[in-house]
Amino acid sequence: MKIISDKMKVLIVLACTAFAVVGFMLKLPPPFRRIDQELHALFFFMAAAFFNILFQNKKISTHLLIFGMLFLFSTLIEFAQDYSNAFFHRRIHGNFDPEDLKFNLLGLFGFSAIWMLYYLGSEFLSNEDK
Q1: Per-residue pLDDT tens for 18-74?
Q2: Count of domains forming the chain
Q3: I need a surface site. Which of 52, 73, 108, 128 has the fewest CB within 10 A?
Q4: How many CA atoms lie within 13 A of 85 on its CB side?
């Protein structure tokens, strides 16, 4: 059953992407800077959950596509943060940080572990009904 049309899903993805790009391009307020990496992990955990739920994902291939797209996004954001300093001729954000990528992956793998348990559980239960 479709609750949200495909066009609406595309608009939601575009809006969330635009919001995330703007958010990642700004410096964090000082109180949050000491937990920057944990916020990266949390963001990508929640983004993976959001997109898997939005697309009502029940396939490993779709999950891997979402995982890959989010990791690509995280890598491009890191490069954009680094480039923004040269583009704007002032520091609006830090530099490319491989540690951020590590925590982005941590968030994605964390959600993937939970999703995989859900997937295996639903497969097991559906096979049991046959």
Answers
A1: 999 998 888 888 898 899 999 999 999 999 999 999 999 899 999 999 999 999 999
A2: 1
A3: 128
A4: 10
